Task: structure prediction
Amino acid sequence: MAKHKTHFEECDVLVVGGGMAGTGATFEARHWGRDLKIICVEKANIDRSGAVAQGLYAINCYMGMQWDENQPEDHVRYARNDLMGMVREDLGYDMARHVDSTVHMFDEWGLPMMKNEKTGRYLREGKWQIMIHGESYKPIVAEAAKKSADKIYNRIMITHLLMDEAKENRVGGAVGFNMRTGDFHVFRAKTVIVAAGGASHIFKPRAVGEGMGRTWYAPWSNGSAYALPIAAGAKMTQMENRIVLCRFKDGYGPVGAYFLHLKTYTQNANGENYEKKWYDQTKELVGEYIDHHPTPTCLRNHAFIQETMAGGGPIQMVTTEAFQDPHLETVGWENFLGMTVGQAVVWASQNIDPKYTNPELTTSEPYVMGSHATCSGAWVSGPEDLSPPEYFWGYNRMLTIEGLFGAGDTVGGSAHKFSSGSFTEGRLAAKAAVKYIEDQKAEGINVSDKQCDDFKVKVYKPLDTYTVAQNEITGGTVSPSYISPIQGLQRLQRIMDEYVGGIATNYMTNENMLKRGLELLAWLEEDLEKVGAEDYHQLMRAWELKHRALTSQCVTEHTLFREETRWPGYYYRGDHMKLDDDNWHCLTVSRRDPKSGKFTMEKVPVYHIVDENEKKKAS
Ligand SMILES: Cc1cc2nc3c(=O)[nH]c(=O)nc-3n(C[C@H](O)[C@H](O)[C@H](O)COP(=O)(O)OP(=O)(O)OC[C@H]3O[C@@H](n4cnc5c(N)ncnc54)[C@H](O)[C@@H]3O)c2cc1C
Result:
């Protein structure tokens, strides 16, 4: 252990993850906490990290309140509809009322925004989206964070949260290691904001073997945002609400700009509008939700999946009409070049010119996240002016652990935040964290050296395991006494895929399969004590795997608890195929006891605040 040097830092605000939410948090913490010590720790390099690393072509969440294009209430209704009723409206409203100010700052900081030549306003792609030349998006927000923080640590993976030993259930910082130097880092902190992104690669991806690593959500998003708080005993919500995306096949190229801006549409192999065909069947399952406008994302997926299972595939995007217009053709290609270069490469390699060939679409493997069209994540306090008592315990975006805050993909219940909303939520969390410190709530925190040393032993164990076990390798990477991170990952993905509603079963699961999945996950957890790492990069892989495995347990527990199919097209409970508003019009909340490792589940009411308030005003 001595060979790994330990560095100690003490700070007021520790931001874990320097993606969209983390940069927002770091920036805003400085605004409110001029004299505070603010540190941001990032697993990669903050200039090109997280889901926006490669750039984006649209900011997907902008109200346009100054022009009365949309108001926050509209966004709440939109997110509520898309999530089949299940959102935290207090959180959604709070994000929406602040998101425009965030976007205006991006504009001031030099992000190239497309403008509508006639109106001078931001160019709309859809009701909520505005278009940008966004290759430089991430470096721009990173610069704001770098100017705000006392220090940014790159290449450090946070593995565990530290807990205060003076007061129960209060956070005391975090530990991790530098994957280049191998050094151990202890951050004692008065508040911690977890902004570590969503989770890809917990379900087996469509692309395996040579294509492994090609996923829709960033392959390096490994669920730390969930595993860190779960391990510390924080409550989580809606973890069953994984997302499945309809995307261009093999490259996961986004379809938003195609639908909204290019006005392309989908058809089955016979050139038919297949969505109509599945209307009656979907109505049987979900009732009037199928008549909502816009059609919830999961229900559109449902029609796609049913049509494919019925032999109507391949499903295609009709691009050959729009691409006859040279301007739209350029937009279509640029959309990928600024965001998903791989899709353009896939089309080139498959001889697809969308001007002459309608490209295939597919539904992806499931992902877990809290900022896109799903809302898995931590159960947090809302803002004091909006939240009902069940949703409020003192500080906005504080988890059920004191001093621990979350933003972006970390936070559950508030879907459709996207890049701008995640940055905004980081700002909201940071403002509250500073207030928590100012209110003297973080006094007397005690994190002993022993707690840090114990974590240090745990963190490096995979290196020690490998050092011994490599002597028993019988061939290649086969050893009777350790498993490698990739072996463990593939085993995890198969369990999730086959038992928890992945692509292997066309997103189908049931109580028996979920229970078996939990048993297999428990065996995996035991075996992960024997994961071996031959170098610091593999050590990162080992900890990514452990975070993914813990996230997966939580997803499975939630999926078992909700005895209905709330989101057909995201997953199906074969034993409860119908949406059941009588029993399940509620949010699910879990807590894992850090000592026993056992999960407990509860139902929490879902409050439709926006329209309730309007009803009250009217009466
Ligand atoms: C393919 C794709 C397309 C998208 N398209 C759009 C779009 O067109 N428009 C739009 O507005 N939004 C879009 N989004 C959504 C947007 O990217 C996310 O909503 C947003 O990035 C979420 O912010 P976040 O901070 O929670 O996560 P991220 O931005 O992913 O940041 C998480 C950060 O945490 C770091 N990290 C992870 N684990 C650890 C750890 N253990 N220790 C330290 N650091 C860690 C990561 O390296 C990363 O930098 C898209 C996302 C994807 C993946």
